[in-house]
TrEMBL record, chains A, B:
Annotated ranges, domain DhaK: 7-330
PANTHER family with a match to the protein in the record: TRIOKINASE/FMN CYCLASE, TRIOKINASE_FMN CYCLASE
Name used for this protein in its record: Dihydroxyacetone kinase family protein
Lineage: Bacteria, Bacillati, Actinomycetota, Actinomycetes, Glycomycetales
InterPro entries registered for this protein in UniProt: DhaK_dom, DhaL_dom, DhaL_dom_sf, Dihydroxyacetone_Kinase
GO molecular function: kinase activity
Length: 574, 574
């Protein structure tokens, strides 16, 4: 939904003013829209685009050297008037005539045609190419009825590149028409946008469902389905577009520019996940991918949706496609052309050799692996709860971060045939690497501190373990710069380490000392719930933070308790 | 909310793969993130940025010539691990040492510091600048505790430009630190994002409210307020940032790069409306605006919010700022530097001279103005209903489009002192221009057809009016390529024109003939509700389209009826 406006009636004008103010290097505000702020060669065909506003970068964001010469910017989702179009075209004209290019909508056709007639009557040569890339909006036999969506970009760029290359109006029109013939798009949507000041979205799609072929203003689609996976969506989009290869030729061997366009609030990260599969599918079909585009090129305010465009190049079009562009929202070509590197990557160095270990330590490594299994299982069983607790005061990903780390630690610890110290060290490194974030780094420190004391020779003693845990607590405090009372992992780790030491000094055996220490840790973790939230981590609604423990401290207590049970069980059977 | 993923646990990896696949011209995928795909000069300091994923263009989108040499890309909102950072830094290193730059968050500091220690131990010189631009996250005396948000861009760019300019590691660090000292940001939010697979958003802000100073992961803000106007928001952001001018110097005369950053679903159009006022306020404070940025530079998935960054240049920084950049999501510098045009604009030509008119026609112009007043009032009174009807089968803006047009027509008709024909012609032109879209163009045709028949001499006759309306109906059909039965304005306009003719032919006077015709138009408009919606205009849920008339036909009937009442009243008093 739109959040911010002054008087909704002034929105489009104020938007255009603000756009021009922000982009004075590229565009000049004129009656009806914007034109290039930079000089174009005398006699160059002027490419004038336009349409309703609300689709940025379309249309004003596409004005600049190498792209459009002017854009008529209508009201929100409403065609510009013939007067606006005429005024922009006159300001953009370089004496070489005007090529109008815009998406094929009834209101735009009406107004652009009227402007064209007026200009011709005044002696300005004009031609028009209405973009018809949306395959879902009419059958192939009725291509002229199809709507124009993100494929606009391909047609606009070719028209502009042709003008730049010195073609006359006929030549520019021919090439723009060819580009339109070879551009196909297909889109889906999950929700519509709400215009400034409106009470309701333009359309809605039921929760969990996805509209197929829906237009960028909510025009009718061809169906609805459950929301697929990202890969499923890629398959749907590619399959639909491969049904209609231009000229009926085969896809294999064709050179294609894919444009995966976000409509506003389906964001870049999601588009990249979808594109990953799109690229695989196109390559599997034998298509050569040229200059892929993944981003926002033609939006519909914050509508959630995406479309895939395939622009089927031929030799002439591909040469034009390389024309540099410098527009507010679209730039192509590098100022400092740089040499491409040879692909080399930095695959992790081969694992270091496994140090020698004696039989006793190898046996102890079995206990380490069992402990890693218990940790992974404990986190798995509590992942949702940990996420919930973290969501109160943090970003809610503590559970999945811990899960990622514990799983990686178990895998790494199981994969190596080594002594107890090396086994745990490998697990520690894997945890830190795969979990990332703060908790990943801190658990890496704890486990590697213990690993250093266990060593690879001899059966580890209770004293080794106690010293390792103490080292870990100290390491975490140094590393994380936190102290007891800061409501972090440290609040449970320090009491745990101290209790383990105290009970060991008092002569308790490992299971007994550990169990007592785990109980202290659990008590201390619980107490973090009674502390005020730390500045810098708490959420704006502070009262929500009271009553839930710190998730890091809670995780430590859960793990300590579970390992205590493992040790007790082992002792029973020893 | 996030809509599309495969396994949420794989999201970050698949996103990075897709990002690298889409941007092979700029980046190379390596363990831990991406590095430039292009060669950098041997010995150049490598700028390595990074952080959690979910903030695109930060961080991978900022890798390329003139910007970062590499980006460590962590899991969603989780710091990359020390291993990831180390691996990326090694792949990015050109033998000139590594400058780490990233937003100041606990997890990032932990992991980047650990990576730095390891690299130094291996003999790679390293330095670090953590970005601390968010003024809402700590007091000025505790600047080192502040978070890094969209100001990242300023610091990253200066660091990279300094490296490009040949500074050594100390020099790059000094300049990056200077940039950070002179960068301040302040943000607001309306809603939080929902991570892939999560059930709930990371945070929420009550409907109609705006959180002030909220961090990009939902960290605590400094307050909450009702959603302001766009201008009010601009005033809030600028006022807050002008409280803290670096060095305590005056703002007046300073040269500043403003960065108005969208967090994901507060879209470009809204940002431009806000920027319009930001620019006014900065200029009013005597600040010289340099290279304004309005767009998405550091997002938080589809979080709705924005931040304003002011980057206070000095001479050294401004020179570096002009360094060209060619990264996937950020480009600066033009390949074809073009001459800026002199500002000239295309202000609408001075109004043509008003044609001569006789007294009778000037008197009739008074009736035209009264009719324009009635039209504007009628549309005002029905604007919401018209919007609602249009929302069923169209995009819901018919009401506001008609309102814009009718208001402009009244203003233009009142501003001119002319005969009836010219008065109505001016009104027709203003309607078409200000309303735009299909209905604006068609009402322009109707009114100008009538105007042509009214002329500027003599009292217009019923025959003139009847002929004008008939011309209008024909013009609309030609122009809009619609026929009776297509469920458009034509469905009411044609019966209206025919009935007017029929009743006039039968000897009725103007008020009687008009009233009868208006009744026919109203009946015909109502009947459009019983027609099936036209393909190409209907909404996906077709059943909703039944039972509501076409908004264009309905508008015409409303206007015809209201003018009928005006004429009748005039007659009563005649």
């Amino acid at each position: 939904m739109t959040r911010i406006w002054n008087d909704p009636a002034d929105f489009a004008d104020e938007m255009t003013d603000g756009f021009a103010a922000a982009n004075g290097r590229h565009v000049q505000r004129v009656t009806g829209g914007v034109v290039r702020a930079t000089e174009s060669p005398r006699g160059q065909v002027a490419v004038v685009v336009g349409g309703g506003s609300g689709h940025y970068p379309a249309f004003g964001g596409l004005v600049g050297q190498g792209l459009a010469h002017g854009a008529a910017m209508g009201n929100l989702f409403a065609s510009p008037s013939a007067q606006q179009i005429q005024a922009v075209a006159k300001a953009a004209d370089n004496g070489g005539g005007v090529l109008f290019a815009y998406g094929n909508y009834a209101g735009d056709v009406l107004n652009f045609d009227a402007a064209q007639e007026h200009l011709r009557a005044e002696g300005v040569p004009c031609a028009t190419v209405a973009v018809t890339d949306d395959v879902s909006s009419a059958a192939l036999e009725e291509r002229h009825k199809r709507r124009g969506i993100a494929g606009d970009l391909a047609v606009f760029r070719i028209a502009a590149a042709a003008a730049e290359a010195g073609h006359d109006l006929d030549g520019v029109e021919r090439l723009a028409r060819l580009a339109n013939e070879r551009t196909r798009s297909f889109g889906v949507a999950f929700s519509g946008c709400t215009l400034p000041g409106a009470d309701e979205p333009l359309f809605s799609v039921p929760e969990g469902r996805m509209a197929i072929g829906l237009g960028i203003h909510g025009e009718p689609g061809i169906g609805e389905t459950d929301v697929p996976t990202a890969d499923g969506l890629a398959e749907l989009l590619v399959a639909k577009l491969l049904e209609e290869v231009p000229d009926g030729t085969a896809a294999a061997g064709a050179r294609v520019v894919p444009i995966l366009n976000g409509l506003g609030s389906l964001k870049y990260e999601e588009l990249f996940v979808v594109y990953r599969r799109v690229a695989q599918l196109l390559e599997a079909a034998g298509i050569v991918i040229v200059d892929p585009h993944v981003g926002e090129y033609c939006t519909s305010f914050d509508m959630a949706g995406t479309s895939l465009t395939l622009f089927w190049l031929d030799q002439e079009l591909e040469a034009l496609w390389e024309t540099p562009v410098d527009a507010p929202a679209y730039r192509r070509g590098s100022v400092n052309p740089a040499q491409l590197k040879a692909a080399k990557g930095n695959a992790a160095a081969d694992a270091d050799a496994v140090p020698e270990a004696d039989e006793a330590s190898r046996e102890a490594a079995g206990v380490v692996r069992a402990a890693l299994g218990v940790i992974a299982a404990t986190i798995d069983a509590n992942v949702d709860e940990l996420g919930r607790i973290d969501a109160v005061a943090g970003d809610g990903d503590h559970g999945i971060g811990m899960q990622r780390g514990a799983k990686a630690a178990l895998t790494a610890g199981t994969a190596v045939d080594a002594g107890a110290g090396t086994t745990l060290a490998r697990a520690a490194a894997a945890w830190a690497d795969k979990a990332g974030g703060t908790s990943g780094a801190l658990w890496g420190v704890i486990l590697s501190s213990v690993a250093n004391r266990l060593g690879d020779n001899g059966k580890p003693t209770l004293a080794d373990l106690t010293a390792g845990v103490a080292d870990g607590a100290k390491g975490v405090m140094d590393y994380g710069k936190a102290e007891v009372g800061d409501k972090t992992l440290v609040d449970a780790l320090v009491p745990f380490a101290e209790a383990l030491q105290r009970n060991a000094d008092a002569g308790a055996d490992l299971p007994t000392a550990w169990k007592a220490a785990a109980e202290d840790a659990a008590r201390a973790a619980k107490a973090t719930a009674d502390l005020l939230p730390r500045m810098g981590r708490a959420r704006p609604h502070a009262e929500k933070s009271l009553g839930t423990p710190d998730p890091g401290a809670h995780s430590l207590a859960l793990i300590a308790t579970a390992i205590g049970e493992l040790l007790e069980g082992r002792n029973d059977h020893a």
